[in-house]
Amino acid sequence: MSNDTVLDDSTGARIRLARKKKGYSQVKVAALLQEIGVSIVPSYLSQMESGDKLPGLEVFIGLVRVLDTSADYLLMLSDSPCLQAAGTKPTTPQFSDEALEVALVVNDLSPDARELCLSMFRPVAEYDQRQKQVIKSLARMIPQENE
After folding, report:
1. The predicted structure's pLDDT at residue 46
2. How many domains does the structure of the chain reveal?
3. What is the distance between the alpha carbons of residues 62 and 108, in angstroms, rounded to a whole number?
């Protein structure tokens, strides 16, 4: 199996792989990003691909567009670089800009720091889910005008 078919373990490596699969140079990707209003220089793309820099949200979204790949793939939430076909239901949830930003930041952390972040996120997520359940239960108790 060639190195281009092995799924690397970083966002930068996946950006590089997606770029190479499209047959684009770093200069070409920078030019395509410029066409959609996202300004970067090829050296910045090189730094992203080598893992020295993480793309900002605007650049990340631009890369998804010009490389015709999924955000899930670049964030290593999916092993499939393909976008879903039009008219099909998403197989993964749609992520807000804030969620993508958190994923990009957490992705760059050491394994221990990632686990620490998750240990802080989990109780917050559990609390939020409980609050949503309470609100739904209370909403069912309120008589609706149409009833």
Report:
1. 94
2. 1
3. 19
